[in-house]
Amino acid sequence: MHPIEKLEEEIKYLHCNPTISKQGLSDAETKELYNSFWNIHVKSVIEYSKQMAKKYNANLDVVWLGALLHDIARLEDLEPHDEIGSEKAYNLLIEKGFDRNLAEKVKNVVLKHRCRKYPPETLEEKIIASADAMAHFLPPFYLWIVKYSTNDFPEFMERNSRKIDRDYHEKIFFDEEREMIEEQYSALKKWFDFKIK
């Protein structure tokens, strides 16, 4: 088995068997939340990322590991998950015997995937940021979010309207990939901006 495939199985296991309980949720609800997060979000980011790595001739190992570990800090509910996750990803890769240079590149990918404080610069960093944003446009993602949201409904709608705008316009760095999800963006925009007249 390829070392990244082995690590992917370990990270999947952690999502299916979380070691902490999310505040306000039972152990069973926490397990369902993280299992769904793996299936709805992380797997999609991995798939989109690997497709783009091949398409744009990026370093597949950096992209695959970056996609796999981009939200690793969320398993412990830690924020800012990009900054904390980048350190966790680096340390995990070193512990698992991966090359330091590779681990450093993955660390930067995880750090920059949100495009907030640290904007992506390399091709691999832009691929993970784009894949993360694209995965937010899959229909189950917002059904999953609303299930676990603690925001009141109007705040939820407004916040996610801003989120999809930012994801679509600022986090997808490739025209073809933006076109790929344009229809979902338009549909979600109508949904989040809906007003009763």
From TrEMBL:
GO terms for molecular function: hydrolase activity. Residues 34-146 form the HD/PDEase domain. InterPro entries: HD/PDEase_dom, HD_domain, HDIG_dom. CDD domains: HDc. It holds the Pfam family HD. The keyword Hydrolase applies. It comes from the Bacteria. Keywords: Hydrolase. Gene3D superfamilies: Hypothetical protein af1432. This is Metal dependent phosphohydrolase. It comes from uncultured bacterium. The lineage of its organism: Bacteria, environmental samples.
